[in-house]
Amino acid sequence: MKKIAKTIGMVTIIFGFMNYAFAGSFGMRYKLVPGQIWVAKMLSQSETTFMGNKNVSKTNTIIEYKVNKGPKKEWVSLVARIRSQKDEAGENIADHMGLTGIKFMADMHSSGEIRNIHHEGSMQIPGGSDKDDLPAEMEAMIQESANFIAEAWKNAVFWFPELPEHELEPGDEFEVTKKASAGSEGSGLQTQTLTKQVFTLEDVSGGLAFFTIKERSITKTKGVMGGKSDTKSLGKSKAVFDLKEGMWVDFVTKYRSKVQFGGGVPMGKDGSEVLTVTKYEMEKR
């Protein structure tokens, strides 16, 4: 009799947990706490086809985030550093370019809204003592390009999508629209990107929410000497959100881009095509 009662009790607990885990809807929030350290492992592979030639590049980037007290309730301040970025040969590109010395900072709400994005420091001009032989105009152009790359990196560092205000259940969708830019009107390089993502909740299991994502974006670039390009991208992605930790633990994007050149740039009438796969893996230290 005791065994039967014990069995019934265990079944009741199990079914109670199942109901708690799967019944109804739930809300999503980032649960960053001051004092935490998060580390993102960013794996990226790009396959570019241009004028009949194909080039593949791979990088492995480590980004560290320190969580500090925010300006007000439900806000935190993030300080991020790129600890390393290695290519296929294992060379630390970020260290070579001085990118590891830059601090990226922003305030982040529990909803994922991000404000006051900025960075301190600038990238180095590669080349060591050879740069002393460059004309001043060329040196300034190279330094401007280096600073542009550092500024553009803030969009990759603070990649976290905003979360919906409403609760979700499997089958529900929510949309995220992002605007990002780098450079300015007075500089030689400038980009503006508009991205729209549609997240669909596919399943909830073991405290994890599994999403599929459809993405569409367009990037307009103005380069030196009047060069211009338009990049249109379509992508399908997958992501996993840890409901307990309040953070994406896996976020994989895969998209195809078509780049069209203008402004008299002799880059071929068909432009170039790029297949990009990027994976973020987040871990709390």
What does this structure look like?
With 285 residues, this protein is an alpha+beta fold. The protein has one domain: Lipocalin, CATH 2.40.128. The protein has helices at 2-22, 93-97, 136-157, and strands spanning 37-50, 53-69, 75-86, 103-109, 114-120, 173-183, 190-205, 208-222, 228-242, 247-262, 272-284. An eleven-stranded antiparallel sheet has the order 5-4-3-2-1-11-10-9-8-7-6. The protein is globular. Mean pLDDT is 82; it is low at 1-23.
Query: Main sheet?
Result: 11 strands, antiparallel
Strand content: over 45%
- With strands numbered from the N-terminus, the spatial order across the biggest sheet is 5-4-3-2-1-11-10-9-8-7-6
As for the number of domains, it is 1
What is the helix/strand order? HEEEHEEHEEEEEE
CATH architecture classification name: Beta Barrel
Shape: globular
Question: What is the terminal-to-terminal distance?
Answer: 48 Å
Mean pLDDT: 82
Helix content: 10-25%
- Report the top-level CATH class: Mainly Beta
How many strand segments? 11
The third-level CATH topology is: Lipocalin
Structural class, judged by helices and strands?
Answer: alpha+beta
Total of helices: 3
Unreliable residue stretches: 1-23
Cα Rg = 23 Å
